[in-house]
Amino acid sequence: MKKTAIMIKIGSEMEQKKKGLFLAHLAVLLFGLPGVIGKALPFTPVQLTWLRVLLASLALLLMVRLFGQSRPSFRSPEIFLLLSTGLLLSFHWTAFFLAVKKATVAVGLLAYSTFPVFTAFLEPLLLKTRFRANYVWLACMTVAGIYLMAPEFK
Question: What is the 3-state secondary structure of the chain?
């Protein structure tokens, strides 16, 4: 009886490890796939961004239909917030696809992964919180790491 309990526990730990490994690989795939697709498709960065918006909109519409959600109603401040963040996100994706087109997918993904740097500096400004020295230090370390990993700056 004791041996069976140990075997079940070991089996459970192995399943968790496999699940974690699968999820890590899936995250890497999802993180890098937009760059590979952006490099491979013969569209401009603006066209790629609009394609991404179209696909995301269709996916959201499908989810709304599948789960029977009603269309939310928004008040004026919420609409302004949604539009401004949408514009910021569209600029982000256009810049990302431009980086991928002009350089390599690896360099584009390096630039893409700098969002913690912007978060460290924008969060205190936008949310009226105090600057945290450790966040600024980590942001500087991120920039230094990117500098070391990037092949060259032109």
Answer: CHHHHHHHHHHHHHHHHHHHHHHHHHHHHHHHHHHHHHHHCCCCHHHHHHHHHHHHHHHHHHHHHHHCCCCCCCCHHHHHHHHHHHHHHHHHHHHHHHHHHHCCHHHHHHHHCCHHHHHHHHHHHHHCCCCCHHHHHHHHHHHHHHHHHCCCCC
